[in-house]
C-alpha cells in the first residue's frame, strides 16, 4: 500500500479584511477513512459528502481542494478524482470517484473557501489525448501547458495541487508526478508535468490557486530546497525521518497567529512502486505570536523509499476588524476541544 499524507493543524476561521472585503474559512473532510466499502470496494465507487460552513458567507465563495493524505496499493494502477459541486453561501459537496484497480482506503481532503476579489481557483482536467508524452514511453519525460486566467492580476502568484489522476505503474519501478510552474504573467503561467521510468500518466486533475494579494503568503516546499535527500535512507524504520523548512512571514501574521487560515497539500512525489508501505507525513505550525517564521516539516518511515516530495501551502493573515475580533473571543466549548485535538495532531506530526 502507498500512503501520502499532509497532516495540517489549523483552526477553521473566516476573516473580514481592512483594505478589501474578504472572507476565508477552512476545514478537513475525512469521509474515506478505512471503512469496509473502501477497503473492499466495488468499482466504480462514487460518493459525496456535504460540507457545511461554520459561518454563512455573505455571497457564494470559491472552494479550493487539496489532498493531505492518500493511501493506495503498491504496484497497482491508480484512478481517482475529487471535485466540488453545488457551492452555496452555507456549504458545498465534495465528490469522490474511484475506478481502481488500486484500493484507496484513506483519502483526507483539505478545503479552503473564500470570498476574495484578488484570488481565483481553477480546476483543470488533462485528458488522455492531452498527455501524449506522459502516457507512453519510458525514461524521463515532460510536457508543457499554459494556465490562463483573467487579466485582473497584474502580478499574480500561482500554486498547484494534485486532486486526481490515472496512473499506470505495472512495469515501472517508480510512481512519479512532478509539477514545475514557470514565471507568471498577467494572463497566464507556464506549467510543466514530469514523470520517469515506465510510469504512464493517462489523466491529471490539478487545482490551481491564483492570487495577487500579497497579504496571502503562498509557495511550494520540498526536495528542491534540500541538497541532500534524506528519504532514501530507510535504515531507521521505527522513527519518522523528517525534513524541516522555515519561511519568514510579514508582521501581519504575528498578531493572534492561531487565527491564521493555514492550508497545505500535495504537489508532487516520486516513490518506489515496489517498495513497502508508502508513508508520508506533513505538519505545519502556526506562526508563533512572538515569531516571524512559519514552520513546516514532512517525513516518512518504515520501508518507504521516497526520492522526491513537494507540498504547496497557503497562509492568510487574521485581518479582522476590532468588533469581529471581540466576538471571536467568545469561543465555544466544541471549538476549544477541536483546537486541543489539532495541537495533538501537530505534536505527533513533528519530531522534537
UniProtKB/TrEMBL annotation:
Q: Where is the H-type lectin domain?
A: 49-114
InterPro entries in UniProt: H-type_lectin_domain
Which GO MF term does the entry hold, naming one?
Answer: carbohydrate binding
Keywords (alphabetical) are: Signal
What is a single Pfam family found in this protein's UniProt entry? H_lectin
* GO biological processes: cell adhesion
Signal peptide bounds: 1-17
Q: What is this protein called?
A: H-type lectin domain-containing protein
Organism, per UniProt?
Answer: Paramecium pentaurelia
